[in-house]
Amino acid sequence: MKKKEGTLFRDAFGNFHFVKRFLIFTFGCISYNRYNGFNQLKLKGTEYIKDLPDKRVLFVSNHQTYFADVFAMFHVFCSVKNGFINTIKNPIYLLNPKINLYYLAAKETINKGIFTKLFTYSGAITVKRTWREGKKKIKKSVDLSEITRMGIALNDGWLITFPQGTTKEFAPGRRGIVHVIRKFNPIVVPIVIDGFQKAYDKKGIRIKKKGVLQKMIFKKPIKLDLNNDTTNIIMEKIMDSIEQSPKYYKKTKN
């Protein structure tokens, strides 16, 4: 199957660039004070991403809210694109956003309300959870068409993923991400976030508390040997890198 490619006017999924630019600018203006106003976002390690190639980069991160984490990442990536390191204090970057930026979102979450549907246009790739449907636990095989869509996103730009697939701290990683890495061999960059759960509700839209210091740390790309590393080893490396593995759980309890 031939993969789609972005054009001068549309992204790899047929979304118009000018609409994405408008939405990223609008959402960026609305959310700016959440990260550089009544709340603050402390950044570290964005020097590791400033020289990354424009395509085939996979970001793996822990997850604390449905949308606030992603809003913040859009700010950071657009800021870095415009030459600012470890800061989002120059919102002029919103006039020149990174539009070949995509992120994974649960279909059941993204389909709720006009606001989230608009945000989908900015770069969401919707996927069905294979282990849960609503509050009911299920067990389904990975939809191969979803992996194909992730590949299309990677071939067009950068893709943000949340390997745990939930905002629950120290939840196990889902192996579907390893299938994506094996198939498309992207550069894999870890992100560790904190403070978002304290500041916002689960959706990441309603403000729970002001004066919160949120943190986002970018690390060096993970070294993977796809020929020799087993799926378990790759998964362990990912979970260690985003500080969600058992050893980090033990540290929080000590």
How would you describe what is shown here?
Helix 1 (17-36) crosses helix 2 and helix 5 packs across helix 6. The chain starts with 16 loop residues before the first helix and ends with a helix. The chain is an alpha/beta fold. The strands form 2 sheets. A 7-stranded mixed beta sheet has the order 1-9-8-2-7-3-4, sandwiched between helices. It contains 9 helices and 9 strands.
SSE arrangement:
Layout: H1 17-36, E1 40-44, E2 57-61, H2 68-81, E3 101-106, H3 107-110, H4 114-121, E4 124-127, E5 132-133, E6 136-137, H5 144-156, E7 158-161, H6 176-184, E8 187-194, H7 196-199, E9 213-218, H8 231-241, H9 246-253
Parallel strand pairs: 1-9, 2-7, 2-8, 3-4, 3-7
Antiparallel strand pairs: 5-6, 8-9
Helix pairs in contact: 1-2, 5-6
Features:
36% helix; 9 strands; 1-acyl-sn-glycerol-3-phosphate acyltransferase; transferase; two-stranded antiparallel sheet; acyltransferase; 254 residues; acyltransferase activity; Glycerol-3-phosphate (1)-acyltransferase; Plipid/glycerol_acylTrfase; alpha/beta
Number of alpha- plus pi-helical segments = 9
Question: How many separate structural domains?
Answer: 1
Can you tell me the CATH topology? Glycerol-3-phosphate (1)-acyltransferase
Instruction: Please tally the β strands and state the result.
Output: 9
> What ranges have pLDDT less than 50 throughout 5 or more consecutive residues?
none
The N- to C-terminal Cα distance equals 51 Å
Name the CATH homologous superfamily. Answer: Glycerol-3-phosphate (1)-acyltransferase
Strand content: 15-25%
Q: Give the helix/strand class.
A: alpha/beta
In the CATH hierarchy, what is the architecture at level 2?
Answer: 3-Layer(aba) Sandwich
Question: Mean of the pLDDT scores?
Answer: 89
Gross morphology is globular
Largest β-sheet summary = 7 strands, mixed
Please write the CATH class name.
Alpha Beta
Cα gyration radius (Å): 17 Å
Strand order of the largest sheet: 1-9-8-2-7-3-4
